[in-house]
Automatic annotation (TrEMBL):
Its cofactor is thiamine diphosphate. SUPFAM superfamilies: Thiamin diphosphate-binding fold (THDP-binding). GO terms for biological process: tricarboxylic acid cycle. It holds the Pfam family Transket_pyr. One of its GO terms (molecular function) is oxoglutarate dehydrogenase (succinyl-transferring) activity. It comes from marine metagenome. Residues 2-80 form the Transketolase-like pyrimidine-binding domain. PANTHER family: 2-OXOADIPATE DEHYDROGENASE COMPLEX COMPONENT E1 (PTHR23152:SF4), 2-OXOGLUTARATE DEHYDROGENASE (PTHR23152). GO terms for cellular component: cytosol; oxoglutarate dehydrogenase complex. Keywords: Oxidoreductase, Thiamine pyrophosphate. This is Transketolase-like pyrimidine-binding domain-containing protein. Residues 86-231 form the 2-oxoglutarate dehydrogenase E1 component/KDG C-terminal domain. InterPro entries: 2oxoglutarate_DH_E1, KGD_C_sf, ODO-1/KGD_C, THDP-binding, Transketolase-like_Pyr-bd.
Length: 256
C-alpha cells in the first residue's frame, strides 16, 4: 500500500505458528510466503521469545512516527513454558525491543563455546532445555527476534565474538519452508564480512516436504528429538551428511 498508494498502514497480524504435534493445518502460518514479499523495508516480521520483547514490538507500532505492517508469529506452547518470563525492569527504565536476543554468559564460559546455534521462535526453549539437561557448555544460542528487516549490524557485532565457532541455523519447519531460505545468504554475507572461519551456514531442521507437518504425533516427536540431537550433540560431519534435513519417511525419495 505504501509503495502503490503512498498510504502507511499499522496493520498487525498475530499468526499461530510452531510445530506442536497438532498436524499440518495447525502448524504453519506460512512464514516463508511473508518473507518472500519482504523488500524495501515494506513490512516487519517478528518471532518473539520473551514477554518483554513481545510488549516492545507491539508498543513500537504506536510509538513510532510512521507506520509499517507487522507480522508476529505466536506459538501456543510458549504461553505455558516456565522459562518464558521477563524481569519487570525489561518493560520499563528505557528498555527497548531487541532484534536479536542471547543469554548473558561470563568470559570464562565464553571461552568454552565452539558451536553457535541461530534459531527463531519457540524452538529456542526446546534447544535450551536440551542444553541444560546435557550440561553442554560448548553450545550457545542466538535468537533471531526480528527476521525482517534483517539485523545485519547486530549479527556482525555478536558473531565477531565467535569467529572460530561452528555456525548452525536450526529450525522446526521443513527446509523449503520457514526462514532458512531467507536468512541463509544474509547470515553468510555477515560471516564473509567478518571473516569467520566457517564459510557456509550449516542447516539442522526437517527435510523439504510438501506438507508443513506430519499428522502422526509419534513421528513429530521423533523428528523433533532428532533435530535437537543434531543441533546440540552431533559432530559437524554428521550435520553435513544430513544436509538435506531430518525425515522419518520410509520410502526412497527421488533425488531433486
Amino acid at each position: 500500500g505504501e509503495r502503490k498508494w503512498l498510504r502507511m498502514s499499522g496493520l498487525t497480524l498475530l499468526l499461530p505458528h510452531g510445530h506442536e504435534g497438532q498436524g499440518p493445518e495447525h502448524t504453519s502460518s506460512r512464514l516463508e510466503r511473508f518473507l518472500q514479499m519482504c523488500a524495501e523495508d515494506n513490512i516487519q516480521v517478528a518471532n518473539c521469545t520473551s514477554p518483554a520483547n513481545y510488549f516492545h514490538v507491539l508498543r513500537r507500532q504506536l510509538h513510532r512516527n510512521f507506520r509499517k505492517p507487522l507480522v508476529i508469529l505466536t506459538p501456543k506452547s510458549t504461553l505455558r513454558h516456565k522459562n518464558n518470563v521477563s524481569n519487570k525492569d525489561y518493560f520499563i527504565n528505557g528498555s527497548t525491543f531487541h532484534r536479536v536476543l542471547r543469554n548473558e554468559i561470563t568470559k570464562e564460559k565464553e571461552k568454552k563455546i565452539n558451536r553457535i546455534i541461530i534459531c527463531s521462535g519457540k524452538l529456542y526453549f526446546e534447544l535450551q532445555d536440551h542444553i541444560e539437561q546435557l550440561q553442554k557448555e560448548n553450545v550457545f544460542i542466538l535468537r533471531l527476534e526480528q527476521i525482517y528487516p534483517f539485523p545485519y549490524d547486530v549479527f556482525s557485532k555478536e558473531l565477531k565474538r565467535f569467529i572460530d565457532c561452528e555456525l548452525i541455523w536450526c529450525q522446526e519447519e521443513p527446509k523449503n519452508m520457514g526462514a532458512y531460505g531467507f536468512v541463509k545468504r544474509r547470515i553468510e554475507s555477515v560471516m564473509k564480512q567478518i571473516n569467520m572461519k566457517q564459510e557456509k551456514l550449516l542447516y539442522v531442521g526437517r527435510r523439504a516436504a510438501a506438507s508443513p507437518a506430519t499428522g502422526v504425533f509419534d513421528r513429530h516427536l521423533a523428528n523433533q528429538k532428532n533435530i535437537l540431537r543434531l543441533a546440540i550433540e552431533a559432530e559437524k560431519q554428521e550435520i553435513l551428511d544430513m544436509w538435506s534435513g531430518v525425515s522419518l519417511v520410509k520410502y526412497q525419495l527421488p533425488i531433486e
